[in-house]
Amino acid sequence: MSRKTFHLNAFLMGVGHHEAAWRHPRTDAHRVLDVRQFQNLARIAERGKLDSVFFADTLAVGPRIERNTLAVFEPVTLLSAIATATERIGLIATASTSYNEPFNLARKFASLDHISAGRAGWNIVTSGSVDEAYNFGLDAIPEHARRYERAEEFVDVAVALWDSWESEAIVLDTEAGIFADPSRVHTLDYAGERFRVRGPLNSPRGPQGRPLLVQAGSSESGKEFAAHRAEAVFTAQRTVEDGVRFYRDLKSRLAKYGRAEHELKVLPGLVPFIADTVEEAKALEQEFTDLISPDYALRQLSSMLGVDLTAHALDAPLPPLPAESEIQGGKSRFTLVKELAETEDLTVRQLIGKLGGGRGHRTFAGTPEQVADELQTWFEAGAADGFNIMPPYLPGGLEDFVDRVVPILQERGLFRADYESTTLRGHYGLDPVESQFAPRDSRVSA
Amino acid sequence: MSRKTFHLNAFLMGVGHHEAAWRHPRTDAHRVLDVRQFQNLARIAERGKLDSVFFADTLAVGPRIERNTLAVFEPVTLLSAIATATERIGLIATASTSYNEPFNLARKFASLDHISAGRAGWNIVTSGSVDEAYNFGLDAIPEHARRYERAEEFVDVAVALWDSWESEAIVLDTEAGIFADPSRVHTLDYAGERFRVRGPLNSPRGPQGRPLLVQAGSSESGKEFAAHRAEAVFTAQRTVEDGVRFYRDLKSRLAKYGRAEHELKVLPGLVPFIADTVEEAKALEQEFTDLISPDYALRQLSSMLGVDLTAHALDAPLPPLPAESEIQGGKSRFTLVKELAETEDLTVRQLIGKLGGGRGHRTFAGTPEQVADELQTWFEAGAADGFNIMPPYLPGGLEDFVDRVVPILQERGLFRADYESTTLRGHYGLDPVESQFAPRDSRVSA
């Protein structure tokens, strides 16, 4: 077996992950509306040979209007603009299985894969906020289990649509007037519980066969879905022990789906504050914490927990919370926040400070060496195949990581010195996928 | 009243509008998969100071798999990539009101408007082919009248979502920690027959307020919808007399919606074959006609008419056709084709030849001077506010129009010598739109 490889994704959000990033002098909040900001960030990440950039998304404003920036751009539209400004880095967009049609979603990602010459990835989400439900004709969040059932069926259809064109389907025989070989373009005639789709997709097979499939929910349903479908998982883990437990849990579920461990990469999030000394790094983090607006943070916390805390005292502990089984929104984030507050015995004000950097993802303040040590420790302990780097402020936080931490990882032989592939699947060590409808002898062997 | 202005849109499709374009040596059919082809075409159109480029779309492969190319790219994703390669030209994408959710569509066009700094346009279609219905869980095309009812409600919701952010909503007061003024960000609480959407949109107001609204159906419902909603109309007209009649008809419907005539531009299609002499231009057209594959053309014609003609004799006239009122698909294209065959007494083979260039749009072969004369004649007769130029082959057909015809139009004082605006709405002589929710005193007066 080849040596385990090390992967890095840059998770980009507005002018940084810290909820007060837009107020800090190291950022320019006007840039949340400027596509050039995001093209520039992707170029910085590409300079560091990172595997991919990733954009989250929710289909509602949520509690953010007054006090915080928002994800202005629809991610696929944004990544198409970024694709033309970069050459190698992977491009991962979030899209919801609850509020899209499979045909439209499959088409849009096929377009992005063609436009980027094989760099498209789809972060599959089931949309767990009630604000999203209200924008699509519903009065409540669809039940957690029902959302995952729909997601399973949705992915079946989307994959079949991408597979509806075999890679050899396009003939382009101008003499005979044959554009495509109809025996290699397939209708699905899919008829399931939630979808009926004839196909084929109106886009030929993309360079990767299908986009990289990514997932980020860590509930029981989320882990099972990831084991079945995902090729990369973003996850929030507080300690290396938690990380190892999650990693082993997820990898152990792969065999029953006939999958090998290397076919799914586990990427815990890290919010790094980087400076020349640990004292400076901690002081920098504190500058951001001091800018948190408690009324916004309370609304944000209420939204994460699905419990209204806006009238709750800041210096009291959390009120009693429901069991995870009663939660219909995002279960894993709920439990993470609840456990953090309980195990560290935090007041709401302290909890808000801890969550400000990355909404529950691990925050780490230190020197470039210390950040590299931290990543190496997790990687070598078997808690990670790589990391989801969440710069607290942008572009500076990404520049510091790329220009100061990545060279250390490269020097230690942990991370690639240059790209060895042209596609996102290739960066993550995966082969292009042949159509499920292709004759066996034409399939690429794995 | 100011002098009537003259507008030009480039309607781009694959390697050209002629159905056999991909087989002709003047094209390279591989380029239908290459985003750089489309970026290059848009740059050529921008060199000619054209108002806009436009991409059609259908949500199915239709009868095209074997014998013809297809629209590979989802138009908004494609136009985002084109936006970053151009600076001034407008970018119009087709999207369906029958098979999208208003929230998703409004978001995507808001993104494109931000990414392009105010150059987004939406060609509103109701999707009249049964192949599309099959990809979205239906067994038949939804009734023509129902599709237009849904389109009316859909546009109401989309416009309200774009209006949910006033242009002054973003405050960005980093000191006080105020990102947006909540009194200028509006929920809709829209509850209609087909949609319930709370809002607001998760994207601040775009530079144009809302995208340019474009429409292309010329049936009775289509014309009424256009008079109510559209700011530009693409239409297929066979003669200048037909064109004048359509133009007067459409403009006369505006007053009842409180709209002025200049608020809707009528743009008939033209497929120009351009050469140094009329003989060479006609010979060039014949080269393309000779490459038509009759079996593909019969399937294409069957799809346009909603009647299976694949077993019909090529040298016989059309069989008796149903009345327009019985057609549930695209009514105006049906009637155009039927009337063309009847008035010119054509066999199916002859009809196929006539339709090959632009699916019923007027084809014209001549010198650059003659093409310019033709456009001037229609414009001055009151049949057009400008034209939807449909190059039969690409990029050559567009280059000839831009480099040989546009300079003549500029010399005659008909067409702009340079852009006078930075937005698509500006090119078409329209103001940015203020939110319907904005206080009266903050609205921009027209």
UniProtKB/TrEMBL annotation, chains A, B:
The record's listing under Gene3D superfamilies reads: Luciferase-like domain
> Which UniProt keyword terms apply here?
Flavoprotein, FMN, Monooxygenase, Oxidoreductase
Its signal peptide is none
- SUPFAM superfamilies the record matches: Bacterial luciferase-like
Chain ranges of the Luciferase-like domain: 29-383
* GO terms for MF: monooxygenase activity
Pfam families for the chain: Bac_luciferase (PF00296)
Family statement drawn from the similarity comment of this UniProt entry: Belongs to the NtaA/SnaA/DszA monooxygenase family.
Task: Quote the protein name from its UniProt record.
Answer: Monooxygenase
Naturally occurring in which organism (per UniProt): Nocardia rhizosphaerihabitans
Species classification = Bacteria, Bacillati, Actinomycetota, Actinomycetes, Mycobacteriales
